[in-house]
Amino acid sequence: MKRLLVLAVLILPTTGFAQLLDAAKVRPILNITKTQWVAVREWEGRDLLYFTHLLTWRCGLTRIEYSVNSTAADQVWRFTPCDPSAANPMALPPEQVIYRGYELKSIQNVTVKITYDDGDTDMISYDRKAIQIQ
């Protein structure tokens, strides 16, 4: 019994992450957390627009598009694809950019469009106060 428990503990993390590598598994999570896809923070006299949440769940995504103060979602946020063979495919590589800086108080609204690896898309627009963190 002890061996079985140890084996389960060793296998579970890998199996758990392996199950979150495509749109079918990631979509429900991103639907539930849609209000948290991006965040705005004022830091050292700048507005910082963070994409950390979406980047963490990027395994089921092929594209992230966005716009600031527009609903066009015509800018592409580049990201490193997840590595399914990694111990934690959802972990962000050190070189991954997670935010972009703007002039202080310049972000009034943000629109984000994501494309899942099955081709489906989803889009949302946020007012600044809905995504501003302290």
Q: Your description of this structure?
A:
The structure is a single chain. Residues 1-12 have low confidence and may be disordered. 27% of the residues lie in helices and 31% in strands. It is globular. The N and C termini lie far apart (48 Å). A hairpin with a 2-residue loop joins β1 and β2. It has 134 residues and is α+β, with helices and mostly antiparallel strands. It has one domain (2-133). It is built from 4 helices and 8 strands, in the order ααββαβββββαβ. The strands form 2 sheets. Strands 5-2-1-8 form a 4-stranded mixed β-sheet.
Feature tags:
single chain; 134 residues; alpha+beta; 4-stranded antiparallel β-sheet; globular
Poorly predicted parts: 1-12
Total helical elements: 4
Q: Order of strands across the biggest sheet?
A: 5-2-1-8
What do the pLDDT scores average to?
A: 89
Strand content: 25-35%
What's the β-strand tally? 8
Outline type = globular
Task: Kindly provide the radius of gyration, computed on alpha-carbon positions and rounded to a whole number of angstroms.
Answer: 17 Å
Which helices and strands appear, and what pairs or packs with what?
Elements: H1 2-18, H2 23-32, E1 39-43, E2 46-50, H3 52-56, E3 61-68, E4 75-76, E5 99-103, E6 109-116, E7 121-127, H4 128-131, E8 132-133
How do you describe this structure in short?
With 134 residues, this protein is of the alpha+beta class. 27% of the residues lie in helices and 31% in strands.
